[in-house]
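TICKET: design request
STATUS: open
ATTACHED STRUCTURE:
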Protein backbone atom coordinates (compact mmCIF):
# COMPACT_ATOMS: atom_id res chain seq x y z
CA UNK A 1 0.00 0.00 0.00
CA UNK A 2 2.81 2.39 0.92
CA UNK A 3 4.53 1.68 -2.38
CA UNK A 4 1.33 2.49 -4.29
CA UNK A 5 0.89 5.78 -2.42
CA UNK A 6 4.51 6.77 -3.04
CA UNK A 7 4.16 5.85 -6.71
CA UNK A 8 1.02 7.97 -7.01
CA UNK A 9 2.76 10.89 -5.32
CA UNK A 10 5.72 10.56 -7.67
CA UNK A 11 3.40 10.60 -10.68
CA UNK A 12 1.59 13.69 -9.35
CA UNK A 13 4.89 15.51 -8.75
CA UNK A 14 6.07 14.58 -12.25
CA UNK A 15 2.84 15.82 -13.85
CA UNK A 16 2.95 19.06 -11.87
CA UNK A 17 6.64 19.72 -12.54
CA UNK A 18 6.14 19.15 -16.24
CA UNK A 19 3.25 20.97 -17.85
CA UNK A 20 1.17 17.92 -18.75
CA UNK A 21 -1.76 19.41 -16.85
CA UNK A 22 -1.93 22.15 -19.50
CA UNK A 23 -3.86 21.21 -22.61
CA UNK A 24 -1.89 21.20 -25.89
CA UNK A 25 -2.31 24.42 -27.84
CA UNK A 26 -2.01 24.92 -31.58
CA UNK A 27 -0.13 27.96 -32.77
CA UNK A 28 3.34 29.20 -33.61
CA UNK A 29 6.08 28.12 -31.21
CA UNK A 30 9.11 30.41 -31.18
CA UNK A 31 12.33 28.94 -29.77
CA UNK A 32 15.08 31.09 -28.29
CA UNK A 33 18.67 29.86 -28.46
CA UNK A 34 21.88 31.61 -27.42
CA UNK A 35 25.33 30.03 -27.63
CA UNK A 36 25.89 26.65 -29.30
CA UNK A 37 29.10 25.20 -27.90
CA UNK A 38 30.56 22.79 -25.34
CA UNK A 39 33.09 25.40 -24.25
CA UNK A 40 32.33 26.98 -20.89
CA UNK A 41 32.25 30.76 -20.56
CA UNK A 42 32.10 30.63 -16.74
CA UNK A 43 29.28 33.17 -16.88
CA UNK A 44 25.50 32.97 -16.68
CA UNK A 45 25.55 32.15 -20.40
CA UNK A 46 26.52 28.56 -19.61
CA UNK A 47 22.96 27.81 -18.45
CA UNK A 48 21.69 28.74 -21.90
CA UNK A 49 24.45 27.15 -24.00
CA UNK A 50 23.89 23.81 -25.67
CA UNK A 51 26.35 21.66 -27.60
CA UNK A 52 26.28 21.52 -31.38
CA UNK A 53 25.45 17.80 -31.10
CA UNK A 54 22.48 18.55 -28.85
CA UNK A 55 21.32 21.28 -31.22
CA UNK A 56 21.41 18.94 -34.21
CA UNK A 57 19.43 16.33 -32.27
CA UNK A 58 16.78 18.95 -31.49
CA UNK A 59 16.51 19.98 -35.15
CA UNK A 60 16.14 16.30 -36.10
CA UNK A 61 13.41 16.03 -33.45
CA UNK A 62 11.55 19.01 -34.94
CA UNK A 63 11.82 17.43 -38.37
CA UNK A 64 10.58 14.07 -37.10
CA UNK A 65 7.64 15.75 -35.36
CA UNK A 66 6.59 17.30 -38.67
CA UNK A 67 7.41 20.95 -37.91
CA UNK A 68 8.01 23.39 -40.75
CA UNK A 69 10.56 26.15 -40.33
CA UNK A 70 9.08 29.66 -40.50
CA UNK A 71 10.59 32.85 -41.85
CA UNK A 72 9.50 36.04 -40.14
CA UNK A 73 7.78 37.49 -43.22
CA UNK A 74 5.34 34.56 -43.10
CA UNK A 75 4.29 35.02 -39.47
CA UNK A 76 1.27 37.23 -40.09
CA UNK A 77 -0.13 34.92 -42.76
CA UNK A 78 0.31 31.87 -40.53
CA UNK A 79 -1.24 33.46 -37.45
CA UNK A 80 -4.03 35.66 -38.81
CA UNK A 81 -4.96 33.00 -41.36
CA UNK A 82 -4.80 30.32 -38.62
CA UNK A 83 -2.72 28.08 -40.88
CA UNK A 84 -1.31 26.55 -37.69
CA UNK A 85 -4.54 24.62 -37.25
CA UNK A 86 -3.61 22.27 -40.07
CA UNK A 87 0.22 22.37 -40.02
CA UNK A 88 2.96 22.53 -37.41
CA UNK A 89 5.15 25.63 -37.53
CA UNK A 90 8.20 26.69 -35.53
CA UNK A 91 10.30 29.85 -35.65
CA UNK A 92 13.89 29.47 -34.49
CA UNK A 93 15.67 32.51 -33.07
CA UNK A 94 19.14 33.21 -31.65
CA UNK A 95 20.02 36.14 -29.39
CA UNK A 96 23.20 38.19 -28.98
CA UNK A 97 25.24 37.10 -32.02
CA UNK A 98 27.79 34.55 -30.82
CA UNK A 99 30.28 33.39 -33.42
CA UNK A 100 29.39 29.74 -32.81
CA UNK A 101 25.90 30.49 -34.16
CA UNK A 102 27.42 30.10 -37.60
CA UNK A 103 27.92 26.39 -36.88
CA UNK A 104 24.27 26.16 -35.86
CA UNK A 105 23.27 27.85 -39.13
CA UNK A 106 25.09 25.16 -41.10
CA UNK A 107 23.10 22.50 -39.23
CA UNK A 108 19.87 24.35 -39.99
CA UNK A 109 20.79 24.54 -43.67
CA UNK A 110 21.51 20.80 -43.68
CA UNK A 111 17.92 20.05 -42.60
CA UNK A 112 16.31 22.76 -44.75
CA UNK A 113 15.51 24.90 -41.72
CA UNK A 114 16.14 28.61 -41.22
CA UNK A 115 16.42 30.97 -38.27
CA UNK A 116 16.71 34.63 -37.41
CA UNK A 117 19.79 35.81 -35.54
CA UNK A 118 19.35 38.90 -33.36
CA UNK A 119 22.65 40.73 -33.16
CA UNK A 120 23.85 43.20 -30.53
CA UNK A 121 25.83 45.40 -32.91
CA UNK A 122 28.28 46.89 -30.41
CA UNK A 123 29.83 43.43 -30.07
CA UNK A 124 30.30 42.59 -33.74
CA UNK A 125 33.81 41.12 -34.06
CA UNK A 126 34.36 41.36 -30.30
CA UNK A 127 33.54 39.16 -27.29
CA UNK A 128 30.60 38.94 -24.90
CA UNK A 129 30.35 36.62 -21.90
CA UNK A 130 33.91 35.44 -22.59
CA UNK A 131 32.69 34.18 -25.96
CA UNK A 132 33.71 35.38 -29.45
CA UNK A 133 31.00 37.18 -31.42
CA UNK A 134 30.09 37.18 -35.11
CA UNK A 135 32.15 39.50 -37.27
CA UNK A 136 30.99 41.14 -40.50
CA UNK A 137 32.12 38.25 -42.68
CA UNK A 138 30.27 35.81 -40.41
CA UNK A 139 27.07 37.84 -40.79
CA UNK A 140 27.43 37.76 -44.56
CA UNK A 141 27.98 34.00 -44.36
CA UNK A 142 24.80 33.59 -42.28
CA UNK A 143 22.82 35.40 -44.93
CA UNK A 144 24.37 33.32 -47.72
CA UNK A 145 23.12 30.24 -45.87
CA UNK A 146 19.57 31.57 -46.11
CA UNK A 147 19.39 32.88 -42.56
CA UNK A 148 17.79 36.14 -41.41
CA UNK A 149 19.19 38.80 -39.10
CA UNK A 150 17.50 41.17 -36.69
CA UNK A 151 18.43 43.83 -34.17
CA UNK A 152 19.15 43.10 -30.51
CA UNK A 153 19.93 46.80 -29.89
CA UNK A 154 23.45 48.22 -29.96
CA UNK A 155 24.68 48.05 -26.36
CA UNK A 156 22.55 45.09 -25.18
CA UNK A 157 21.15 46.87 -22.15
CA UNK A 158 17.71 47.05 -20.54
CA UNK A 159 16.05 49.64 -22.74
CA UNK A 160 13.26 50.58 -20.32
CA UNK A 161 15.91 51.99 -17.98
CA UNK A 162 17.14 54.49 -20.61
CA UNK A 163 15.91 57.95 -21.53
CA UNK A 164 13.79 58.31 -24.65
CA UNK A 165 16.76 59.86 -26.44
CA UNK A 166 19.06 56.96 -25.52
CA UNK A 167 16.44 54.39 -26.50
CA UNK A 168 16.20 55.98 -29.93
CA UNK A 169 19.98 56.24 -30.40
CA UNK A 170 20.57 52.67 -29.23
CA UNK A 171 18.00 51.10 -31.57
CA UNK A 172 18.62 53.41 -34.51
CA UNK A 173 22.38 52.84 -34.44
CA UNK A 174 21.86 49.09 -34.44
CA UNK A 175 19.42 49.28 -37.33
CA UNK A 176 21.78 51.46 -39.36
CA UNK A 177 24.70 49.07 -38.84
CA UNK A 178 22.70 45.99 -39.80
CA UNK A 179 20.99 47.64 -42.75
CA UNK A 180 24.21 47.44 -44.77
CA UNK A 181 23.64 43.67 -44.77
CA UNK A 182 19.83 43.48 -45.04
CA UNK A 183 16.74 45.60 -44.44
CA UNK A 184 16.15 44.76 -40.77
CA UNK A 185 12.53 44.86 -39.53
CA UNK A 186 12.65 42.42 -36.57
CA UNK A 187 13.83 43.27 -33.06
CA UNK A 188 14.48 41.21 -29.92
CA UNK A 189 14.33 43.09 -26.61
CA UNK A 190 17.55 42.60 -24.62
CA UNK A 191 16.70 40.54 -21.51
CA UNK A 192 13.08 40.59 -22.72
CA UNK A 193 12.85 44.08 -21.25
CA UNK A 194 10.59 46.74 -22.80
CA UNK A 195 8.00 49.44 -22.14
CA UNK A 196 5.65 51.55 -24.26
CA UNK A 197 8.43 54.02 -25.15
CA UNK A 198 10.56 51.22 -26.57
CA UNK A 199 7.65 49.88 -28.63
CA UNK A 200 6.80 53.37 -29.93
CA UNK A 201 10.45 53.83 -30.95
CA UNK A 202 10.44 50.53 -32.84
CA UNK A 203 7.30 51.56 -34.71
CA UNK A 204 8.79 54.93 -35.62
CA UNK A 205 11.87 53.18 -37.05
CA UNK A 206 9.68 50.88 -39.16
CA UNK A 207 10.28 47.66 -37.28
CA UNK A 208 7.44 45.25 -38.00
CA UNK A 209 7.89 42.76 -35.16
CA UNK A 210 9.54 42.49 -31.76
CA UNK A 211 10.12 39.51 -29.49
CA UNK A 212 9.87 39.01 -25.74
CA UNK A 213 10.46 36.03 -23.44
CA UNK A 214 6.93 34.83 -22.90
CA UNK A 215 6.95 31.03 -22.58
CA UNK A 216 3.70 30.67 -24.52
CA UNK A 217 2.39 29.77 -27.97
CA UNK A 218 1.56 32.57 -30.43
CA UNK A 219 -1.96 32.39 -31.88
CA UNK A 220 -4.35 34.47 -34.00
CA UNK A 221 -4.76 37.34 -31.54
CA UNK A 222 -1.04 38.06 -31.29
CA UNK A 223 0.65 41.43 -30.84
CA UNK A 224 3.47 41.71 -33.43
CA UNK A 225 5.53 43.77 -30.96
CA UNK A 226 5.13 41.18 -28.21
CA UNK A 227 5.93 37.93 -29.96
CA UNK A 228 6.48 35.32 -27.25
CA UNK A 229 9.51 33.01 -27.22
CA UNK A 230 10.46 29.98 -25.14
CA UNK A 231 14.06 29.70 -23.96
CA UNK A 232 16.07 26.58 -24.77
CA UNK A 233 18.48 25.81 -21.93
CA UNK A 234 21.40 23.45 -21.47
CA UNK A 235 19.05 21.23 -19.43
CA UNK A 236 16.36 21.08 -22.14
CA UNK A 237 15.64 17.44 -23.02
CA UNK A 238 13.25 15.88 -25.54
CA UNK A 239 10.34 15.95 -23.10
CA UNK A 240 11.01 19.63 -22.36
CA UNK A 241 11.16 20.41 -26.07
CA UNK A 242 7.92 18.55 -26.78
CA UNK A 243 6.09 20.47 -24.04
CA UNK A 244 7.55 23.78 -25.19
CA UNK A 245 6.31 23.09 -28.71
CA UNK A 246 2.83 22.11 -27.54
CA UNK A 247 2.35 24.22 -24.38
CA UNK A 248 4.91 27.01 -24.66
CA UNK A 249 6.78 25.93 -21.54
CA UNK A 250 7.87 22.62 -20.05
CA UNK A 251 8.21 23.13 -16.31
CA UNK A 252 6.72 25.12 -13.48
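STATUS: resolved
RESOLUTION: sequence designed for all positions
ATTACHED SEQUENCE:
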Amino acid sequence: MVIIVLLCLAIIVFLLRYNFFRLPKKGLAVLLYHSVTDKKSFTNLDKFSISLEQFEKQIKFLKKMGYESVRTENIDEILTGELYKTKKYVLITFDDGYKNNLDAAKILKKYNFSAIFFIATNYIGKSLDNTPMLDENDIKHLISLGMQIGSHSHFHTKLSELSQKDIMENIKLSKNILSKFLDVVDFAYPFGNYNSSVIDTLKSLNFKRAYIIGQSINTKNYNPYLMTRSIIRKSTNYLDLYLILTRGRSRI
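CLOSING REMARK: The chain has a mean pLDDT of 92. The first strand starts at residue 28 and ends at 33.
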